[in-house]
Design brief:
single chain, about 80 residues, alpha+beta, Glutaredoxin, four-stranded mixed β-sheet, globular
Length: about 80
């Protein structure tokens, strides 16, 4: 299984949706809460190619994007192969 990292904040409905999808697929993930931590948020922005919104999701070290991107991958049938890698 691929390692999953998800950058989140405390009150973010998109973070909740993304985590719920991963949980439904039986995936564990490393959640990195960037709320109130400027250094962590800046690290997230750098890793995500300048994207500032949460969640920012990485699977196997590759940047997937946000919640909508994760759901789009799933709808296209491309998420499960990434998770299995």
């Amino acid at each position: 299984m691929a390692a999953i990292e998800i950058y989140t904040t405390n009150v973010c409905p998109y973070c909740v949706r993304a985590k719920d999808l991963l949980k439904r697929k039986g995936q564990s993930f490393n959640e990195i809460n960037v709320e109130g931590d400027d250094a962590l948020r800046e690290a997230m922005i750098q890793r995500a190619g300048g994207r500032r919104t949460v969640p920012q999701i990485f699977i196997g070290g590759a940047h997937i994007g946000g919640c909508d991107d994760l759901y789009a991958l799933d709808k296209a049938g491309k998420l499960d192969p990434l998770l299995a890698a």
